[in-house]
Amino acid sequence: MSYIGAEPTTATFPFDQFSGNGTTTAFTLTYAPASTTSIIVSISGVVQNPNTYSVIGTTLNFSPAPPTGTNNIAVLYLGLPVIGVSSPGNTAFRSAQDFTAVIGQTTFTPTGSYVPGFIDVFRNGARLGSADFTATNGTTVILNNACVAGDLVTLVYFTLSSIVNALPLTGGTVTGSTAFSSTVTMSGAATFTGGAQINSLGVGTTASGTAGEIRATGNITAYYSDDRLKDRLGLIENALDKLMTLDGFYYQANETAQQLGYAVKREVGVSAQQVQAVLPEVVTAAPVDAKYFAVQYTGLVPLLIQAVKELKVEVDKLKDSGVQQ
């Protein structure tokens, strides 16, 4: 599976504890849950009905006040926004399963597997401590003390996926390798500081879906041509002779090219080997496989220009010769 940014990891659910004093009804949470059902609250080991408390921002309110006790109020978060990232945040999964025990029963098997350390066990509404049961193999839970007939045993197990390097909807930075298996539409600017591989690209239009094809509704501008950025090294000499060694011809992909993914269709072009012999600067490695050649066709334009100029000189000489005769 591919991910936007870093691969999701699992981590322990956030957990708050408070000490009741019999009079305090409001407690300040570390995080602001979405609602009362986004947290599990227990007092003295007994899970509370969400209707018995309220949450406003980070304030947890009880009515009446919880009894006196040291760390007797526990709050387990079932999900919270990622710190520093507004979207998409964390995704929490909570699964709960009830069992009605038979006399002497100690082993309980949930329908789904659990991650050791991410499971709570309740017996008749009271949460058991970690020393009261064994839950290490991901498939069964074993109580240390056998049940009596009719005991209600509840297994609550959790999975928390935290996207710690998410791309917010309002923009941001993604690091690491990122793969998209379907169409991606970008309405704003996108900057890639590393390598980017795209199967098919549409600029101002829909991508064709043909591997390696770029479609654009406007001009594609690349490289530079300004004379202020160049130190000239001389004209292309014998341009006409060089041009005469090149063949322009029709062709179609042969069997090797087809194995590399090219379709059989009638095309026009030149031979990279012929071009390399007279103008190697415009021959490069083919993108499909570096052991083959490709021609930068725009680089042939200067050769054509100089060849036409040389031909013009010869034509002018012939004209002058004709006039003199």
Can you describe this structure?
The protein has 325 residues and is of the alpha+beta class. It has 3 domains: 107 residues, no CATH class; 69 residues, no CATH class; 69 residues, no CATH class. It is built from 4 helices and 21 strands. Strands 1, 9, 11, 12 and 15 form a 5-stranded antiparallel β-sheet that branches. The protein is elongated, with a radius of gyration of 37 Å. 11% of the residues are buried.
Q: Rounded to an integer, what's the Rg over CA atoms?
A: 37 Å
Largest sheet: 5 strands, antiparallel
Shape: elongated
The count of β-strands is 21
Structural class: alpha+beta
Low-confidence sequence ranges:
81-92
Helix content: 10-25%
Order of helices and strands: EEEEEEEEEEEEEEEEEHEHEHEEH
Gap from first CA to last CA: 82 Å
Give the rounded overall mean pLDDT.
Answer: 83
Number of helices: 4
Strand content: 25-35%
- Structural domains: how many: 3
Give me a quick take on this structure.
13% of the residues lie in helices and 27% in strands. With 325 residues, it is of the alpha+beta class.
Task: Label this structure with key terms.
alpha+beta, five-stranded antiparallel β-sheet, four-stranded antiparallel β-sheet, 4 helices, elongated
